[in-house]
Amino acid sequence: MRFRILFLILAIGSLSFGQETCPELLKGAQTRLRQDIGTLAADELKGREPGTRGIMMAAEYILEEFKKLNLVPFMDDDYKQKFTIPVQVQFGKGNTLSVGGDEYQLYSDFYPTKYSANETVEGETVFVGYGIVAPEKDYDDYKKLSSKKLKDKVFVMDISAPDGIHPHSEYLKYHDLGERILLAKKKGAKAIVLINNEGSANDVSPKFTSIHSKGIPVIFISNKDLAKSIGKKKKVALSTQLTPKTVDAYNLIGFLNNKAQQTIVIGAHYDHLGMGTEGSLAATNEPQIHNGADDNASGVAGMLELARNIASGDSTWKAYNYVFAAFSGEEKGLLGSAYFTDNVPNISHMFKYMLNLDMVGRLEDNLLAVSGIGTSDAWELVSEKFSCGDLRIKGSSSGVGPSDHTNFYYKDIPALHFFTGTHMDYHKPTDDVDKINFEGEEMVIRYILGLIQASIPVKEFMFTPTVEESRTAPSFNVTLGVMPDYMYEGEGMRIDGVTQGRTADNAGLIAGDIVTQLGDVKVVDMMSYMKALGQYKKGDESTIEYTRDGEKMSAQVKF
């Protein structure tokens, strides 16, 4: 699951239930869940990263389960739906830099950026400040530089801004480096050297999966001493060589055709982070197997168990046709579900609704988050028809979130996302099978079966757009180094776990503390917490206020 957006589960209240009881599962459900999750999250699969042997082993296992249930391919007579995933752009041996006759090394001294073209250039440098022209503020970095001084030069540009890079900058609309590079090109630049001497901005990343070339070489200087001197009329020779790379990935789609009038989709993603070289939250950068037992072997196991029960022959489930989908590329940006939804003809009329299981293996306090209930007025009506033991539901309206249901929502399909909460093992090597609550997952699956059963009499699931919470998220460049408790229902931001050696840990905060104020911003929920973070950059200090066991406390934090 991709937690780039932090307030997936802003509650709009718990759903209420009637008297019917959710269905029981076929005997031996927990044994099958243990088998499924244990297989998918085994060390042998090495984290199921797309393009690896491990994820193909996972695919083979899932397809075997599909075939046991007599599911058939949904499209093109093949269970596998192939697509490609862009991976980190490769830097070849053709990346070179010479300044004043001295040779510099790739990575340690410089590297090309995603804005670069592949080209060899020689020329003299000219410093152009931030490369910003803001007429309404009477500000122009090029004002004292004639066209003669600029033509065919190598522009050296600081990636900061006149008042720094932060959310309240008066030059916020001029921060975009791509636009500044295009302006520099119009001014006569034959190449651009980016530097970060002021430190208010984050360094340009050497890791990117797609090239957004502006037509000239663009490099970033990582050698701080070189960055301070390169703008002083230095003769440079540089070459850039960037090579895009993709890997093949496969969605796995099984179809249960009951010859019904309506079809629903039940999906989960089966990819994870592999050895954790990208996306890991581990304390060390050393490659380690990220098994992803909860994220998202638990979701795939839940999807398979739903398929077993629905395909069991019980006449109840014959009211629908079913598409069971195991998506790849979710951790890379919801790529597999995007490919699927883009390649089903007339998709908004094809499916009645979609159910997405992502991280459903760590149920605590019997509290299940269900987001997307605002995608159709029918959801609340359906949910009121039954109860599922002591399971409590925390509902969220938005159809947009960091998981695969989002792509169905964008195709005007009502969609729900089921989630049992995040934890300190999220995106870490410690997300292993021994942490799974199998009894809790069985309860979640029963609840989903209850929803399906209760939805059968509802002939029309009219799609309704929702407030797209995740698109309005404030941006921020620093964190406290904590895992928020997304299931917390009180005021403030409750800490579910603290990363050792990070900001909060250094300030003495612990799991269970509830942050109520950060600097000048009162923290009442996840939105205000992120707004508060948006004030700061690396190196800043602030006061944080929090409660611990009901007692008000405060501390100084340094980001």
Quick recap of the structure?
The chain contains 13 helices and 27 strands. With 559 residues, it is α/β, with parallel strands linked by helices. The protein folds into three domains: 272 residues, 3-Layer(aba) Sandwich (Aminopeptidase); 147 residues, Glucose Oxidase, domain 1, CATH 3.50.30.30; 83 residues, Pdz3 Domain (Roll), CATH 2.30.42.10.
Oligomeric assembly = single chain
Query: Low-confidence spans: pLDDT under 50, at least 5 residues?
Result: 4-18
CATH class of the largest domain: Alpha Beta
The named CATH superfamily of the largest domain: Zn peptidases
Number of strands: 27
Helix content: 10-25%
Compute the CA-based radius of gyration.
26 Å
- The total count of helices amounts to 13
CATH architecture descriptor of the largest domain: 3-Layer(aba) Sandwich
Distance between the termini: 26 Å
Q: Report the major sheet.
A: 9 strands, mixed
- CATH fold-type name of the largest domain: Aminopeptidase
* Structural shape: globular
Q: Would you tell me the overall average pLDDT? A: 91
Total number of distinct structural domains: 3
Counting helices, strands and paired strands, the structural category is alpha/beta
Q: Which strand-content bin applies to the residues?
A: 25-35%
